[in-house]
Design goal:
The protein is an alpha+beta fold. It has 17 helices and 32 strands. Strands 13-14-11-21-18-19-20 form a seven-stranded mixed β-sheet. Helix 1 runs parallel beside helix 3, helix 3 packs across helix 4 and helix 13 packs parallel to helix 17. The chain is globular, with a radius of gyration of 28 Å.
Length: about 750
């Protein structure tokens, strides 16, 4: 049994249909006489629609960035609603906002709508199933009233209510009657997994046909009547400014409507709006705007970082990780320093991880329209709430007057958690007083990003004469993710030091430390942020320690994890980290690749496992040495993400995450010379091509645990498993990413 306060508001559609709208408890609303006593409710727009012809529409509330929530979240509602999936049509909901109980406070109409941290499925697992169950019970009550029978004798099945004597009523025929009844107050008894008809069944993407046929609409496809098109020339120097701009030639070009200066943040400001100063060109078409941008004669004023570089940053990081200055302790269990001093065997290694760009297939961009005291935004987003707050702060328009449409996004990976491109569009639209579509090119995207932090990590392992581990330390010298991020309450090591991650609580003495190293590049969340940063070093070092102690890498991992137990984990994805679940995915990956079999010369298998955002994943990769290089022969990914909503979606996420992780590990980095980013397109930031991509054997472990997300679990262990496989095949240990640098 699940006890939950009422959260649906039922209303009658024209034509006799039923609209079920989600409403969150505790918010002010006008109660109706038919509603039972309890929290006052606010109707929050169509969430489920049942029409008289028995057609059913379910709204998808989350930002669809390729992780599949436009399919999986409606599946949760549909299963408890007792309809067939082929009876359902899914519609993307806009961002919804309503006034809260306190002045200036707001609540989401549909619950959480952002996309980050793999939270959509965990957040919706109970809430959305209860939404479906409450609508189903209401329709049962309507049938019971119609037939004058006990509701307990009726059954819901495939969008119908069935009477014991064989009579059947469709949901559509009951909709008008149901709309007049009081809501079932709950608690709601939700289905047991054995009774699921939709949840747990492989299901194709709800708008698959639109995607493969080219009909799917992305943010870049937005159209508003009368809109103009804008591109921006941004200062290429970190914290630089516009010294002068001769726009006379650009203004004479056909179709050009305006040249708009773009104000950038001051060097002391947090990055809460746009990233850089620049000059916008507004024209009748994208082509005209881009051609006019080329005609601008801009002299840039370099900022304070004009003489810095990532090569110099690496030297600073290597010096900092080896020094004893400005060390911050994230966690200390036991006494690692004493354990290190007393150790019979000492192993130490340094690992480098570079800056990374997000490089989403659809670059950032936004279409915006101001009409009186209202604003309409159409953009591919991950944080629509952040966009709403920022637009209101910049314009003074009340948040309830800001309408945001959420088209499908061509990738997110954390980039769209920031809304700097929306801030730019606001500045341009305010200046020209017309609807504006702001377009970013790939060059704009790669050179103006919130990059994954750079760092050097030093790991140490202490062991006794018998090869038993007595201590472990992990020191990170990195560019803090917190820098200019409006996150003053967060520790400076956020996004770089996984203080509770493996092997914390798995060794007698453990020490996690951080050293901040300054640099002028903006930093942000990059897919599975802390975990892609930390897992490469940790899981590579486990193999190094095993080799030094003459132990098998699989045996050593399992020994360190120990007996199955739940450990405290305070970061996102906690509060529990299960050693048993992590060990299980590691064993399964090793089994599936045939770990331990005799391999021919020049071939090796590498392993890695990691806990990410409540999910557990492992990789086993087999590599063949070829001349001076190597080739991936097999790649196995196994994950435990709790109960599965859509197995096809989870497998796709594990495959995509693995390819993303391998592509990044092999060839991607962002470098800076003289205060300027060097990469400007895919020739300098070479994503993996299809002929180079291995087939990923993705396997999902059965589980009865509450689900985690799945969009980020397949990435963190790909890089260390590959590096470990390369060592096993070639004897060469690669400690710096990218591996082919």
């Amino acid at each position: 049994m699940h006890s939950r306060r009422q959260f649906l508001e039922i209303s009658l559609l024209s034509g006799g249909g039923l609209m079920a709208s989600i409403a969150l408890p505790g918010l002010a609303a006008a109660a109706t006489e038919q509603r039972p006593a309890g929290p006052r409710l606010i109707p929050l727009g169509a969430f489920v629609r049942i029409h008289p012809d028995n057609s059913i529409v379910i709204g998808a509330r989350g930002c669809e960035i390729g992780q599949g929530v436009k399919t999986s979240l409606p599946m949760l509602i549909a299963d408890e609603l007792e309809v067939r999936w082929d009876q359902v049509r899914v519609e993307q909901l806009p961002y919804g906002l309503m006034a809260g109980t306190e002045p200036g406070k707001f609540a989401g109409r549909y619950g959480g709508q952002g996309a980050g941290g793999s939270t959509n499925i965990p957040d919706g697992w109970t809430e959305l199933r209860e939404a479906g169950a409450q609508i189903r019970l209401l329709l049962v009550a309507a049938a019971a009233q119609l037939w004058q029978v006990d509701a307990a004798k009726l059954k819901a099945r495939e969008a119908t209510i069935v009477h014991p004597d064989g009579r059947v009523a469709t949901y559509g025929s009951l909709a008008a009657r149901a709309a007049q009844l009081p809501l079932p107050p709950g608690p709601f008894e939700l289905k047991k997994p054995a009774d699921f008809r939709i949840i747990g069944r492989p299901t194709k993407v709800a708008d698959c046909s639109d995607i493969v046929s080219g009909r799917a609409r992305y943010g870049i496809d937005a159209q508003i009547p009368g809109m103009l098109f804008a591109v921006i020339a941004r200062c290429p120097y970190l914290d630089g400014t516009v010294k002068s701009c001769d726009d006379s030639a650009a203004k004479q070009m056909r179709g050009v409507r305006a040249i708009v200066p773009i104000t950038g943040p001051k060097p002391t400001d947090d990055f809460v709006r746009n990233l850089a100063a620049g000059v916008a060109v507004v024209a009748d078409s994208t082509w005209s705007a881009m051609q006019a941008r080329k005609a601008l004669k801009i002299e840039w004023e370099p900022g304070a970082w004009a003489h810095d570089s990532t090569a110099a940053l690496e030297k600073r990081c290597r010096g900092a990780v080896a020094g004893e200055t400005a060390i911050q302790t994230g966690r200390s269990d036991g006494d690692m320093k004493t354990a290190w001093a007393a150790a019979e065997r000492k192993i130490e290694a340094d690992y480098k991880v570079p800056f990374l760009a997000h490089a989403t297939m659809e670059p950032p961009g936004a279409t915006i329209h101001f009409t009186g005291d209202r604003v309409k935004l159409i953009a591919s987003l991950q944080s629509p709430g952040g966009a709403s707050r920022m637009i209101s702060a910049m314009t003074g328009v009340p948040r309830l007057n800001i309408d945001i449409e959420l088209p499908r996004a061509g990738g997110g990976f954390g980039r769209r958690l920031e809304n700097d491109f929306v801030a730019e569009a606001v500045q341009v639209a305010q200046a020209v007083k017309q609807p504006v579509k702001l377009i970013w090119t790939r060059d704009d995207d790669l050179q103006n990003d919130f990059f994954r932090p750079f760092g050097v990590q030093r790991l140490r392992a202490a062991a006794d004469k018998d090869g038993k581990l007595t201590g472990w330390s992990h020191r990170v010298a990195a560019t803090s993710r917190r820098w200019r991020a409006d996150s003053a309450d967060a520790p400076e090591w956020m996004g770089t030091l996984d203080v509770d991650g493996f092997p914390a609580n798995c060794v007698p003495n453990y020490l996690a430390e951080f050293v901040n190293v300054d640099f002028g590049l903006p930093r942000g969340w990059w897919r599975a942020p802390i975990h892609t940063f930390a897992a490469f070093a940790t899981q590579s070092f486990v193999d190094e320690v095993a080799f030094a102690l003459e132990r098998d890498p699989l045996e050593m991992r399992l020994a360190m994890l120990g007996e199955p137990r739940d450990l405290d984990y305070k970061e996102h994805g906690g509060p529990i980290f299960s050693t048993g679940r992590l060990a299980a995915v590691m064993r399964e990956a090793a089994r599936r690749i045939g770990y331990g079999r005799k391999l021919p010369k020049g071939r090796g298998i590498g392993l890695a496992c990691h806990f990410t955002f409540g999910g557990y994943a492992a990789h086993a990769i087999e590599v063949q040495a070829r001349g001076d290089g190597w080739h991936i022969e097999r790649c196995v990914c196994v994950a435990d993400v709790g109960q599965i909503v859509n197995p096809a979606g989870v497998e796709a996420q594990l495959m995509g995450g693995t390819i993303d992780g391998l592509s990044t590990a092999i060839g991607l980095e962002v470098t800076v010379v003289d205060g300027r980013i060097q990469q400007s397109n895919f020739d300098g930031y070479p994503l993996m091509r299809m002929p180079d991509a291995p087939f990923v054997e993705a396997h999902v472990m059965p589980s009865t645990m509450k689900p985690s997300g799945a969009g980020e679990m397949g990435i963190p262990t790909a890089a260390p498993a590959l590096a470990n496989a390369i060592f096993a095949a070639t004897g060469k240990r690669l400690r710096d990413l990218p591996l082919r640098s």
